[in-house]
Fold each of these.
Amino acid sequence: MISADRLLAFAVMSFLLIIIPGPSVLFVVGRALSQGRRAALMTVAGNAVGAYVLIVAVAAGVGELVERSALVFTALKFAGGAYLVYLGVAAWRSRRALSSALPAAQAGAGGGKRTFWEGFVVGVTNPKTIVFFAAVLPQFVDRGQQHPALQMLLLGVVFNVIALASDSVWGLTAATARDWFARSPERLSMVGGAGGLAMIGLGVTVAVTGRSD
């Protein structure tokens, strides 16, 4: 399979890319601020599963199609951007109800499943992620060994483990700040609105971002 040196080099590269706040981090932070710790962690998990679906797609050859097709890339870009804007608007509109909804949100299992699904949709519709995987994963595959697709899947596991750890730290840190704001209805409303605006801004950024070709 893959040599230890290749795995280590890929892990270092992934870490350097992941620790720089990007769309996934901003989305997780926005959910943490608007809905709290549990929502942030469910979002992280859903986003990671969505990202791994992209890794599977790249290993199966779909990543090359997205990388080369401006139409497919644009469709994914607008789908992901529109969904983020929708979630941001919903968070903004419900910001004044956060205080009364906080206990129910912390205890509700159904909300957790929905948050996981929302994180998954954002992760799987992120065109930048699939283009990154399509460009980077093949560089670390040892063509002298068998099963290059399995090598990509293994590299994807390494990337996701690092991303899960990093995004969780961001989400828990933001949720801790939210707990302080939760002591005041006005402060909680403000931070919930800020989380919604952050998601709206992120959605617009994703939608208007072009590609180098």
Amino acid sequence: MTAMERNGLPRAVVPSAFDTEARWYDRLVAANPGYHEHLRLSARRLGLPSDAGGLRLLDAGCGTGASTAALLSVAPGARITAFDASAEMLARARAKVWPAGVEFLHTPVEELAGVRGPFDAIISAYLLRNLADPTAGLRRLRTLLRPGGRIAVHEYSVRDSRRARWIWNAVCAGVIIPLGKVTTGDATLYRHLRRSVLEFDGLGSLTQRLHDAGFTDVRTGSVHGWQKGIVHTVLGTNPPETS
């Protein structure tokens, strides 16, 4: 039995678990103060030009489209490709109103079926924690970036902070798991969320993963509110080509 199976859902069934919970997902994240603003903050940290016309952006693990909307908020003229492994989450995303330059693809990061780079920037929100090999996933994403392009990994990381772990456990036990149970009738995915975050990389290990995947200029920033020190943006650059 793997560590993930002891401490959360087996990775292979995570997309199907999101399929089951997709119809409630937007309602639940709307109850999380700062959820959408934090995604917009990570998108702003990509440092995209104000005139986004002609930019190609990738949303890796887009879910119901919250991170896609965050990209649009900072680059309204960009062409955006968004993908996810959960068909039902994608159906929720596609049902929303989007500009003509936004497309959604059903594929896991291990396959990237139909995803064609190069992209000028990538946002990856809450994806790496659910991959069997996060470093390999980052390497695949880097191959889709143009030289000098940037990635913003938006992810939970509490392992390096006793305070962050205490707050995360308290909020999960008192709010997230009970709210998930009341809303959906099943707390399995929300118990998985709690355990998977606790078992995931500390911020130091996560930044090292980006280095190991070949990114340079790796930097971090946290968010505000109760998730300060819990949710982070980790930025990395695909090195420019050398002659």
Amino acid sequence: MIATLSFYAFAAVLIASAVMVVTSRNPVHSVLFLILAFFNAAGLFLIAGAEFLAMILVIVYVGAVAVLFLFVVMMLDVDFAQMREGFQRYAPIGAVIGGILLLELFMVVTVWRFAPEAAALRLNPNPAGVTNAEALGRILYTDYIYLFQASGLILLVAMIGAIVLTHRDRAGTKRQDIAVQVARAGTVSVRQVPIGVGLKEIGIERPPSPEEAKPKQVEHQHGGHH
């Protein structure tokens, strides 16, 4: 009885949070509702006896993916009003694509059937004295060890490619030089700046940028009077 009530409670909150992810106007709120949906999905996994999947969902998706989404949305200055300007122009195309997707989902639901052995597999208990995580680990590292290692190599190549693409030399890019920073440790002076006092008033000014340091060219207008 308690498991049934817990299932319906987690499922209701999961569906409501998923709807709010799509319908929220504020992208930060959408990410927060997504985190709530992940937590409720993890609760459903715990009820189903898949504690490994529940912990992976919380650690990987909530602790890494959703937090990354949240930081990206909060740090990027995206003008969402400007992004919605062309919404009405592309609405017919979106409606056609949505109708095709809805038709495909309807065809899948009407044709899909349970396999005869699905019920027996779902109710098949774990071996005696073996937890769900240990049983899953035995399958991954015995029957599918080569596929598991291949997926790891693919992720490694993707990570190296992303690092190579982002760390190429660009003009005007300043890089950190640890040796220079350590060598000038004795020449750094510490000054106590009073609260509320401007930097210019105490003699500390920021060096001008190259654009500001360039002398401005004065255009001479030649008129009729000399």
